[in-house]
Amino acid sequence: MSHFADTCLVAESDGALIGFVGGYRPPSPPESVRVWQIDVEAAFRRQGLGSALLHALIQCPACAGVEYLEAAVRTANVAMKRLFEGFARDLDTACEMTLGPSGIVPPRSSGDGEDLVRIGPIHTHETMSPGGFYESL
Q: Which residue, 47, 25, 45, is CA-closest to 35?
């Protein structure tokens, strides 16, 4: 889990966990951060929390120099694709979806394919302190 320690964030409400984003900054390519998992508690969906988590992720000190955000998304997961498209619009940058095997994670045995989402180039101008994220939600 140490590979994810600096690129994972949680959102809480009244002490309860309501959202999570797990990112991974691979050594190659160093200009990318990969979203390994993102989830928002059902009662808090469609309120912008997923997008806020993504914005906070790219502003973390561990993501300094990141130019691209990547994720493997199940082909049938329209809501997740819309989240990433909206995030790209917020940043006024491209959102490319490559159909078929992403190469990020092994294929699932369920038969539901995964596509690669690649957002960027991303231009972040400042990073947040670790405590800043919690204060902003």
A: 25
Q: What is the pLDDT of residues 33-73, one digit of tens each?
A: 999 999 999 999 999 999 999 999 999 999 999 999 999 99
The residue-averaged pLDDT of 86-99 equals 94
- Which of 1, 42, 40 has its CA nearest to residue 24? 1
Residue 113: phi and psi, rounded to 5, are -70, 165
Q: Residue 5 CA to chain centroid, in angstroms?
A: 14
Measured CA distances, 90 to 7, 24, 27, 61 (Å): 20, 22, 27, 20
The dihedral over CA atoms of 70, 92, 56, 12, expressed in degrees to the nearest 10, equals -100
Q: What is the DSSP string of 52-94?
A: HHHHHHHHSGGGTT--EEEEEEETT-HHHHHHHHHHHHHTT-E
Summarised one tens digit per residue, pLDDT across range 1-23 is 566 778 899 999 999 999 999 99
Domains and CATH numbers, the chain: 5-136 (3.40.630.30)
Q: What pTM, to 2 d.p., does this model score? A: 0.81
Give the integer Cα–Cα distance in Å for 130 and 126: 13
